[in-house]
TrEMBL record, chain A:
Domain of life per record: Bacteria
InterPro entries per the UniProt record, alphabetical: Metal_resp_DNA-bind_regulator (IPR052509), Tscrpt_reg_PadR_N (IPR005149), WH-like_DNA-bd_sf (IPR036388), WH_DNA-bd_sf (IPR036390)
Protein name: Helix-turn-helix transcriptional regulator
A matching Pfam family: PadR
Source organism of this protein record: Candidatus Galacturonatibacter soehngenii
Start and end residues of each Transcription regulator PadR N-terminal domain: 14-87
From TrEMBL, chain B:
Keywords: Membrane, Transmembrane, Transmembrane helix
UniProt-listed NCBIfam families: perm_prefix_1
Keyword Nucleus: no
Database matches in InterPro entries: Perm_prefix_1 (IPR047928)
The name this protein goes by in its record: Cell wall polymerase
Bilayer-crossing regions: 85-102, 117-138, 145-166, 178-197, 204-222, 228-249, 261-280, 383-404, 416-435
Organism: Candidatus Galacturonatibacter soehngenii
């Protein structure tokens, strides 16, 4: 997959994942790989700049919590700003997806990538 | 064992390489811990699939990618932001204040008081120090500083009460009344910050805000302070409650917005009631002095008369150039004869003593302390309305830059604190300018960065510095992790990753 296109969509997907429940970095990587059938299998260190960027723009916020195995983890949760951003990005993505499908004649246009309208 | 040790050193080396790219050192530990936890999680997964020991570590490390690249990307996001424009505008306003002070002292035939100029320079140093260190200090010590400020205010109040009780007013003269004004203004960001830090404790934020505001108002409801601190109390209420409303609108409190609005209105009602009571029955006369000074002006020393005189003189001011008054007009304005019909010859003789040797000049006519309290009015009368519009344009641009800066802050804690500082500054400007066009609210207010006075300059520079500092550290101090910058360095390495030998 084109790297530039992938980077844009990763922020949106991470937002979606933390919207479902509070998650920590490693959990996000695993979930992203699993749900995308390993299409989004990125170098794990590169996840953190994306997460920190979302955090500094106020889309997500973090807190520390001790996991059952005693390890202190940094969890991320979505903020109201993040929810709005996700909704906007999802709309943009759907428009983009429909337009691409109209041009290349794909069958799946009109469907939403993440179930958000 | 040696291989295991070597693998751990590689992990540490990776974490070192990442964190060394981060220029803002206090967040290196936070990033290190997060990445270390991630590597440990990945290593455990490899162990689950039967890969153990050094190989598990090395594979986990390989999955992370290039350390320097990750570090550079993180540094690009989590870096200290320069904010030269806002700081330069504040300094530009200070320079205007300095020039104004020098010009006024020269025009009035006074010698230049270097202590007045010193405080402007001192203020700029305070601004730069607060800009560089203010936000971290605020985040670490908000509660302690608030308690300290409130304690000083309480002591101040008790001292005045004792003085009044023993009728020893000479004691009061030791107190700097400007300090009481300045302390109230300085409390603002800390009260707002304190409410923010307690935002998840249901009723506590609004309760604390109400109690502290009531305390501030009650400690000013004694003798001359009730009048002197009207402007400070209004600035305090307006700023604290505007910031609180912003927090409600942005849903920063746990409760529903409707519930918050109701409790907010109740609190505001309580505070306004206390404010009215604290004026010790002078509400009507204070209001009349503000809007209709002619109803309360009794003599030429009266502040209400000053407002009337200023309105009268401004109506004659030129667009460009100094006001031109005939000799007769000058005499009438100097003595107050134009307004008071019943002045005795003694009164007129007394007032004429204030005339300069070579004839009456503008500075003789203006109220006492015009060079500081009526700085804007003086400049209009001396140089024309054009200068006023230029000044107002510069001020609007400067505050526009400050509000734009706040808009760009993402961290809620920094945003709220910066907002309260800039509202406090702009409210002072509004009250000061209103006073200078003849609508004086209580006693005199300060004109941030422009009017002289050590308390005014110092406190307002702290407010401006704090606001700019919140922007500066916005990207490195994220929501809910303000304690990260407290420098908790006791857990540099977590879990099984141990330091290098």
């Amino acid at each position: 997959m084109d790297k530039k296109l992938m980077n844009i969509s990763i922020s949106m997907m991470l937002l979606k994942l933390v919207e479902e429940q509070d998650r920590y970095g490693y959990e996000l990587i695993k979930e992203l790989e699993f749900r995308s059938n390993h299409v989004f299998s990125l170098k794990e260190g590169t996840l953190y700049p994306v997460l920190h960027n979302l955090e500094t723009t106020g889309a997500i916020e973090s807190y520390e919590k001790t996991a059952p195995n005693g390890r202190l983890r940094k969890y991320y949760r979505i903020t109201n700003t993040g929810k709005k951003l996700l909704a906007d990005k999802a709309t943009e993505w759907n428009t983009y997806q429909k337009a691409v499908n109209l041009v290349i004649g794909g069958s799946g246009y009109g469907t939403t990538a993440w179930g958000i309208e | 064992m040696e291989q295991q040790h070597g693998a751990l050193n590689e992990v540490n080396s990776f974490l070192d390489d990442v964190t060394q790219q981060i220029q803002y050192k206090p967040i290196r530990n936070e990033i290190r811990k997060e990445l270390a936890a991630h590597i440990e999680d990945r290593k455990e997964e490899y162990e689950h699939y039967g890969i153990h020991g050094p190989e598990a570590w090395r594979k986990a490390l390989a999955a992370m990618g290039d350390a320097v690249e990750v570090g550079i990307q993180l540094n690009e996001i989590r870096k200290v932001q320069k904010n030269s424009l806002s700081v330069l505008f504040v300094i530009a306003l200070t320079v205007i204040g300095m020039i104004g002070t020098i010009r006024t002292e020269v025009s009035s035939g006074f010698y230049i008081r270097y202590t007045d100029l010193f405080y402007f320079f001192f203020g700029v140093i305070i601004l730069l120090i607060t800009y560089h260190f203010g936000y971290q200090f605020f985040a670490k010590n908000c509660k302690k500083i608030l308690y300290a400020l409130l304690s000083v205010l309480l002591l101040y109040f008790l001292f005045i009460l004792v003085s009044v009780y023993f009728e020893n007013y000479s004691l009061i003269s030791f107190l700097n009344t400007s300090l009481a004004f300045a302390l109230r203004i300085l409390c603002i960001p800390f009260v707002v910050g304190f409410s923010y830090f307690n935002r998840k404790k249901k009723h506590l934020p609004i309760l604390l805000t109400t109690i502290i505001t009531a305390f501030i108002l009650i400690t000013s409801s004694v003798t001359f302070l009730s009048d002197y601190l009207i402007a400070a109390n209004i600035i305090f209420i307006v700023t604290v409650y505007a910031s609180f409303l912003y927090m409600i609108i942005k849903k920063l409190f746990g409760e529903t917005k409707r519930y918050q609005i109701i409790t907010y209105l109740v609190s505001l009602g309580v505070v306004i009631t206390i404010f009215i009571i604290s004026l010790l029955g002078d509400v009507k006369s204070e209001f009349e002095q503000f809007i209709y000074p002619e109803r309360v002006a009794s003599d030429y020393w009266d502040d209400a008369y000053n407002s009337i005189l200023i309105r009268e003189l401004l109506s004659k001011a030129e667009f460009i150039g100094p006001i031109s008054l005939s000799e007769e007009e000058s005499v009438n304005y100097l003595t107050g004869k134009w307004y008071f019909d019943d002045l005795s010859d003694t009164d007129i003789k007394y007032r004429m003593q204030f005339a300069s040797e070579n004839g009456i000049i503008l500075e003789d006519i203006l109220p006492l302390h015009y060079h500081n309290n009526y700085r804007v009015a003086y400049w209009i009368l001396k140089y024309g309305w054009f200068l006023f519009f230029v000044l107002i344009s510069i001020i609007l641009t400067a505050y526009g830059v400050l509000f734009r800066m706040i808009q760009k802050i993402n961290n809620n804690m920094g945003k709220i604190m910066a907002l309260s500082c800039v509202i406090a500054l702009s409210t002072q400007v509004i009250i000061y300018v209103l006073g200078n066009i003849g609508y004086q609210l209580g006693w005199f207010c300060t004109f941030p960065f422009i009017s002289e006075g050590k308390c005014s300059i110092t406190i307002n520079m702290i407010l401006a510095g704090l606001a700019c500092s919140a922007y500066r550290y916005d990207k490195v101090t994220t929501e809910d992790n303000y304690n990260m910058i407290k420098g908790r360095r006791n857990k540099l390495f977590i879990g099984t990753i141990q330091p290098k030998n």
